[in-house]
């Protein structure tokens, strides 16, 4: 019996997940879609030859009896409401980041899920499913490098659009590191600081680019994260964890090597989607399989969504103040104590 | 509508493909299984919760009306017969290597498929679906390195069992290079020669290990292929194509790097199955998708199976003679002229 | 005619340079030595079969008529006095770091050299002569990566002795980066900040280790420098410069690769002396050749020694204050404007 | 006291060694030069400001009382005669390859040196002094990879001149591998075979390029050596030794890495002289030091020169015959039994 999935929001990422579930993964089928643009939703049904009903809104889709689980792939400000409805309807829900646009919104979801007393919510932080990050996590958990002390990481895009603003560097870009890093080292964030290097000539006038974010954890780990979204040369994700007794580092994406014209080279990806395409597949397959096999989701929790919101809030404040800003997390609820890592 | 698949042979590789189709890939379902050991076949149905009927033999499975396509994963000597029956029944068939145990057997399949006038047969050479090989193929086809002149490759296993014999080094091991290399460079083999280096102390008394096979193509490319199946250190596949203007080389499998104890290291796989696990997935998904979307299979053809058989025969002869032996291929039938590469 | 050299201080580094000049390099000869331990000085003459006179002190050595140039390899607090005497005697002088133990002391040397109106003083910052740093410098100067924006670097030692204190992390260790980085990017330092990550269990109780130093330049480049002197795994120097249009990175020291026991590895040096042994040779040969060929020294200037002193002072202050501290450099004298880089 | 050196042949390589000894190395001085072109010899004395006498011929130079050692850097056909004269005069002699143009010529030198009963002759095979080869040798001698079984190597030049002929691929190019490989594995050659791949469009009409040489040793090691002297992309030396338990491989020359324009790259040298420049320095310094310290040369012996001659002869024969040809070495004289490796 397949997991019957409804999709709220049939834009780019919604279509990708629909395609993935329909044509690449096992165990799920799209039975319902909705979008603020009803025609677009209908078009998706046609384009992907779905055997799915188009619903007028998220309420009706969520309450449909044949919908076991929903994907929330609408625009950010609509996420919280849909997720809360899904929890109340006791439906499993996969929500793309952000879980909610405010920390308070995330907390409302957290509390609703605790009330439901069941892991229903998975947040779309796909890095935890990337083969390289999984290897890093295993190495750290197996204490291959001893206690982590420092993390050096970088998030580089070749270029961003006109509508990309300075705060998006942390809210939309660094947020992936923010989720992945506390998971990697099983730690919580204490404070953040933002330093602006000389601005790149490649950046538009309104944008501070690059940025360096210094994050300190409660355990004393110091993270320095470079964000450079107009680096031109490629989409490049770097992550290196320095432990007491050794260092582990994320691999470069696999690529054939070339000797030609006096250069020994490999290609760097220009496109972020290709970098994590496998991770997206594993992530959604895990969503389907966990529900089917355990009756609960696994992966990043609503609490992880809350952590991301509080931490990005602190980063935005630090962008403005130039000071070290605290990351004021509430105490972690008992309910989430055991859901810290991806199941292996 | 899913592709309804029957599986002939429910041993290790059969179970893997059943699991793959059932739990990892989209578009296919196992509806029929058979095995010389009927209990084993029944057990597989139970273990994987299949909604599949157990048939007493390949004839009955192939002729079942609800079977659209068959996977032949029985032992080698049984392949030819099952494949011929499938073609005669106008069913699509994916056959693990070898297509047949003799060149004549492969030719009978080739002729049967030509008679059917439809691409029904795909042979299980999964390397063509490996990301690294696909990149090599693209680079060569795009003439990034000019005309290929030489290939240096190696196929190394950490260890082999007692039943592994000297001829298996070419028939079971090198056969993957034999298929992949002529596909990579769009060329045909002309002759083969086998040289035995000093025998490794790691090899059992009855086995010549390592071996070096020199293959020359009709186009003049010289391939030197090292086979070393008791190398201890890992499962390691190397392939480097030297062209007129540059060199392309297969990447190492993606792995985190570690700095520890005076060493900068990455892990080498010890297990061949992990090396090509993604390629197997892509291969079977391609089998399903090609049938569903084009009404024909793509990927390695029966003719490719014939090439592998003739070439490994020549290698075995060269192992014994110590001489350069011709690879006596018949002329390529018109029918196969256009089916040379994986569709992109 | 060889350059006749006197050596002040015949400890470890003094002996190395004596050996280098006598047995590895061309154009120089040791004609005079002195040490506070006269017996040690005499022993060196014997051990290296030098045709050299032992002097009672630096004054007498410097004023010896047959001494063309002096190497100051005594302990740090004695450097300033010997260098000043050498300048006054119009002798060329190569001084190991620190040029002087205070910024004021460095400035006295600067002023004395300006008064002499001749480049007499070279400071022993050997990284500028390391092949990797030279390549980085060329790439940056040739604008291969556009304007530098950020530098990520690390200075790691396997272990340090009991007498290594927290301030030595900047004064003795980071000082090499401090000299090399402003030279690499042709910029001056503006401020420094020190962050202490969780302390490593490998560090002795009295020592803060690791440390992260954030340096901002007048031009807006942000440097984050990791110092970890009990990292156990090796002596490891990393340096990566992120420019507007690309990134250049220091190579790993050249080492054969090994595939064995499931690992693909290269060796990491455990010993700092082997890391820069070639750079030391090139450095001293350049000292000899510049004098012989141009009648002036080249390489790091007294002003560079002053920069190092002021910057390490600011770092020590930042270690204590936890705040961002200014690097209060005086204006660069006209005299040093043209002596910014190693001659190629 | 410096080693007083006379140079026979002041062409390109002669000038390089003169410059090296005069301006880069310690312990030697050029006191005598000769050349068939006396003006050229005189010009070199002027250009390098040598305190050296120009002799009319090799006889007079060799017999000069103040000449302790000679470098033979004349053209190949003149080597044998000068070396024989030097031995008879009991002078140390460093001879660039070839030691003699025939195996018989080499044997005459061998016999003369045995008669002198003193190691007087060093042949200019500089690879043994290259850091990478030295590391390979250490790893093999320390049995890091167990018994060597196979060697894969390549010698690639970007381009060669019009006068480069097919036999030069072995006589002038592969000869360096021929010397280095038997030294690396402490073995002797048994047979050689040459295979011609498709000819590169980059090669001139008269030249077979690339070539593959298969060499088998008495111990059963199989070497496959690629020679491609018009590969365009760079000067590239590859060497990988496959042992029973692991593989060691020569490193790429040290180079900064660059991320730019979608490529992660390092530079490949275009110029062979830069590849082994350090090895040349170490080689000549070792020649000087060994004489000064031990009263004998070390490094490649006259017997090694003989091995190179016999092996390249067999290769040329194999180029013509297309067959496997024996490497018919005489028995190694007792005298050379102990001079197999570079002293460490």
Brief digest:
The structure is a homotetramer of 344-residue chains. Chain A has 344 residues and is α/β, with parallel strands linked by helices. The first copy, chain A, has helices spanning 12-23, 38-47, 58-63, 79-88, 103-116, 131-141, 168-185, 272-275, 277-294, 302-321; strands at 3-8, 28-34, 53-55, 69-72, 92-95, 121-123, 148-156, 189-195, 211-217, 222-228, 236-243, 247-249, 257-260, 263-267, 325-326.
Describe the 3D structure.
Chains A, B, C, D: Residues 3-125 form the Gfo/Idh/MocA-like oxidoreductase N-terminal domain. Chains A, B, C, D: Keywords: NAD, Oxidoreductase. Chains A, B, C, D: It catalyses: myo-inositol + NAD(+) = scyllo-inosose + NADH + H(+); 1D-chiro-inositol + NAD(+) = scyllo-inosine + NADH + H(+). Chains A, B, C, D: Belongs to the Gfo/Idh/MocA family. Chains A, B, C, D: Homotetramer. Four copies of one chain form a homotetramer. By secondary structure, chain A is an alpha/beta fold. Chain A has two domains: 3-127 and 278-306 and 332-336, Rossmann fold; 132-267, Dihydrodipicolinate Reductase, domain 2, CATH 3.30.360. Chain A has helices spanning 12-23, 38-47, 58-63, 79-88, 103-116, 131-141, 168-185, 272-275, 277-294, 302-321; strands at 3-8, 28-34, 53-55, 69-72, 92-95, 121-123, 148-156, 189-195, 211-217, 222-228, 236-243, 247-249, 257-260, 263-267, 325-326. In chain A, the strands form three sheets. A seven-stranded mixed sheet of chain A has the order 12-11-7-10-9-8-15, with helices on one face. A six-stranded parallel sheet of chain A has the order 3-2-1-4-5-6, sandwiched between helices. A two-stranded antiparallel sheet of chain A has the order 13-14. In chain A, helix 4 runs parallel beside helix 5, helix 6 (131-141) crosses helix 7 and helix 7 (168-185) crosses helix 10 (302-321). The longest helix of chain A has 20 residues, at 302-321. Chain A is globular and about 55 Å long. The model of chain A has no long low-confidence stretch (mean pLDDT 96). Chains in contact: A-B, A-C, A-D, B-C, B-D, C-D. The interface between A and D is medium-sized, with 16 and 16 residues.
């Amino acid at each position: 019996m397949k997991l019957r999935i409804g999709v709220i929001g049939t834009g780019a990422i919604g279509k990708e997940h629909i395609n993935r579930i329909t044509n690449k993964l096992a165990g799920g089928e799209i039975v319902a879609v909705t979008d603020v643009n009803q025609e677009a939703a209908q078009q998706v049904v046609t384009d992907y030859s779905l055997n799915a009903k188009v619903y007028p809104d998220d309420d009706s889709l969520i309450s449909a009896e044949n919908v076991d689980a929903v994907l929330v792939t609408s625009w950010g400000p609509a996420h919280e409401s849909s997720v809360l409805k899904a929890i109340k309807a006791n439906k499993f829900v996969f929500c793309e980041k952000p879980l909610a646009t405010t920390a308070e919104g995330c907390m409302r979801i957290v509390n609703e899920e605790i009330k439901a007393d069941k892991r229903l919510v998975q947040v779309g932080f796909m890095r935890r499913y990337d083969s390289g990050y999984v290897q890093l996590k295993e190495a750290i958990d197996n204490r291959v490098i001893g206690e982590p002390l420092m993390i050096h990481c970088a998030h580089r895009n070749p270029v961003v659009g006109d509508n990309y603003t300075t705060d998006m560097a942390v809210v939309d870009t660094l947020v992936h590191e923010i989720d992945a890093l506390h998971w990697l080292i099983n730690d919580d964030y204490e404070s953040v600081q933002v330093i602006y290097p000389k601005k790149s000539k490649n950046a538009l006038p309104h944008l501070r680019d690059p940025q360096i974010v210094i994050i300190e954890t409660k355990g004393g780990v110091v993270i320095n994260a470079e964000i450079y979204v107009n680096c031109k040369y490629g989409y490049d994700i770097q992550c290196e964890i320095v432990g007491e007794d050794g260092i582990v580092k994320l691999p470069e994406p696999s690529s054939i090597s070339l000797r030609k014209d006096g250069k020994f080279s490999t290609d760097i990806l220009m496109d972020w989607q290709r970098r994590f395409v496998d991770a997206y597949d594993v992530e959604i397959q895990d969503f389907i399989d966990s529900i089917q096999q355990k009756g609960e989701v696994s992966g990043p929790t609503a609490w992880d969504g809350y952590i991301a919101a509080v931490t990005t809030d602190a980063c935005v404040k630090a962008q403005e103040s130039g000071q070290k800003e605290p990351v004021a997390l509430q105490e972690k609820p008992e309910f989430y104590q055991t859901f810290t890592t991806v199941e292996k």
